[in-house]
């Protein structure tokens, strides 16, 4: 698959991050095609990443072996209809969708035939090479599977899922979870300002602490998250008082309930689109 051409249909921030990761990982820039209706954005992609670009989606699809569908879910049906209407043979092309809430069956229905398909759920830290991508494939070869894994590993880590429903679980665990962490950081930052720290000081204190905690977890993979938390929580101390209060306020249950709400919304979207 190393000599395959891949086209990104709709090159927004996520596609830009994936393409950038691919280039850094050694993919040939000339084997990558990026499309966007905005000529200015497309020119930026061409200048910064040296990939092939076009505003013509059909041109990109015709030239590519692998097509990444990276448009908003509500735009997917209209986009796929243009492929159906065009005289392009897509039967042997591999399609990858990064859209939430659209199943493989629905995507194939939109495309008008049972094409080879991978659903992917990346997250925003992919923009920094720290992403997580959940992958689910249908009717793909081992070679194609390896290729897709190489593409998405270029932005962080990639995890293959045994069944499609796990995509919704990945959304709750990694896709949406950066927002959970940001909300927690936001709450600490707000309290820091209330305690008299300046906005700049509060931001620095919170982001450095969050970064440090994450790096501690990364550097000690053999130690459970629970143990890492216990290691900085002396019984009867200040941290213990704060943690116990969070438990009394049912923080673990609140987080679990929020993740269930995320999954429920993803499942509802599958019925709407």
Automatic annotation (TrEMBL):
Highest taxon listed in the record's lineage: Bacteria
Q: Which molecular function GO terms apply here?
A: pyrroline-5-carboxylate reductase activity
Q: In which pathway does it act?
A: Amino-acid biosynthesis; L-proline biosynthesis; L-proline from L-glutamate 5-semialdehyde: step 1/1
Q: Does the keyword Oxidoreductase apply?
A: yes
Q: Where is the Pyrroline-5-carboxylate reductase dimerisation domain?
A: 164-269
What residues does NADP(+) bind to? 9-14
Provide the catalytic activity annotation. Answer: L-proline + NAD(+) = (S)-1-pyrroline-5-carboxylate + NADH + 2 H(+); L-proline + NADP(+) = (S)-1-pyrroline-5-carboxylate + NADPH + 2 H(+)
Biological process GO terms, please?
L-proline biosynthetic process
Q: Which InterPro entries match?
A: 6-PGluconate_DH-like_C_sf, NAD(P)-bd_dom_sf, P5C_Rdtase_cat_N, P5CR_dimer, Pyrroline-COOH_reductase
User: What Pfam families is this protein classified in?
Assistant: F420_oxidored, P5CR_dimer
Primary localization class, coarse:
cytoplasm
Q: What class of enzyme is it?
A: oxidoreductase
Free-text function comment from the UniProt entry: Catalyzes the reduction of 1-pyrroline-5-carboxylate (PCA) to L-proline.
**Could you say which protein family the record assigns here?**
Belongs to the pyrroline-5-carboxylate reductase family.
Official protein name in the record: Pyrroline-5-carboxylate reductase
């Amino acid at each position: 698959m190393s000599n395959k051409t891949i086209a990104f249909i709709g090159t927004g921030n996520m596609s830009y991050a994936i393409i950038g990761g691919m280039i850094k990982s050694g993919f040939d820039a000339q084997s990558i095609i990026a499309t966007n209706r905005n000529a200015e954005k497309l020119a930026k992609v061409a200048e910064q990443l040296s990939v092939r670009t076009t505003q013509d989606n059909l041109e990109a699809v015709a030239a590519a072996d692998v097509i990444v569908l990276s448009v908003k879910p509500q735009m997917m049906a209209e986009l796929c209809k243009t492929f159906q209407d065009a005289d392009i043979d897509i039967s042997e092309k591999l399609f990858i969708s990064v859209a939430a809430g659209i199943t493989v069956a629905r995507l194939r229905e939109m495309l008008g035939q049972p094409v080879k398909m991978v659903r992917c759920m990346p997250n925003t830290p992919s923009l920094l090479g720290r992403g997580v991508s959940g992958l689910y494939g249908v009717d793909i070869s081992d070679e194609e599977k390896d290729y897709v894994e190489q593409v998405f590993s270029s932005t962080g880590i990639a995890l293959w899922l045994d069944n499609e429903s796990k995509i919704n679980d990945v959304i709750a665990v990694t896709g949406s979870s950066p927002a959970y962490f940001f909300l927690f950081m936001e709450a600490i930052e707000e309290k820091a300002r209330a305690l008299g720290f300046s906005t700049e000081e509060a931001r620095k204190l919170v982001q450095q602490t969050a970064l440090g905690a994450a790096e501690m977890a990364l550097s000690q993979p053999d130690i459970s998250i629970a143990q890492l938390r216990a290691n900085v929580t002396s019984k009867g101390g200040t941290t213990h008082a704060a943690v116990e209060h969070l438990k009394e306020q049912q923080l673990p249950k609140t987080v679990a309930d929020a993740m269930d709400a995320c999954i429920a919304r993803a499942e509802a979207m599958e019925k709407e689109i």
